[in-house]
Design goal:
Length: about 160
């Protein structure tokens, strides 16, 4: 990955919270837990997932930067949705956890050297895992979920 590609992904990562916030703007009142698409997550579940995912990703990048060849542990997002009561909790604290975990992590990019972008670890499900791969995954993650929220909003109006 060259510096221009990385800069584009960093900007996409930085824009992730804004995309989600815009998608939630105007969401039908009282419909955050509505499930118009069978088998798909609700808006509330998506927001809670983003918080848990972002807090996990924040630890992952820190482990990659600070530890020699860290093991990055996978987690079961469906199980999290169930046992963390995604459908029953208000979303605002999770929305803020997502926002600030992302903002805190984005600050690290300004201090990362070229060797930092090549730090290598091992993901318990995906195998070899490095900081640039981390960026590729999480730069797009929030945007994909913002699109899901937009589809839910359209279906519920």
């Amino acid at each position: 990955m060259d510096a221009a590609q990385r800069a584009k992904l960093i900007q996409q990562y930085r824009d992730g919270y804004g995309q989600v916030a815009r998608a939630l703007d105007g969401f039908p009142a009282g419909k955050l837990t509505a499930r118009p698409f069978t088998g798909k997550w609700t808006a509330a579940e998506i927001v809670h997932h983003l918080a848990d995912s972002e807090m996990t990703s924040a630890i992952r990048i820190r482990k990659l930067l600070a530890e020699p060849f860290p093991v990055i542990q996978a987690y079961d997002q469906e199980r999290f949705a169930e046992v963390m009561h995604y459908q029953e909790r208000p979303i605002e604290p999770s929305l803020q956890a997502f926002r600030y975990a992302r903002e805190s992590t984005a600050q690290l990019f300004e201090h990362m050297s070229e060797p930092d972008w090549r730090k290598l670890g091992w993901h318990s499900e995906a195998g070899s895992y490095h900081t640039e791969r981390w960026l590729e995954i999480y730069a797009a993650h929030a945007h994909g979920h913002a699109e899901q929220i937009e589809r839910l909003k359209a279906a519920l109006k």
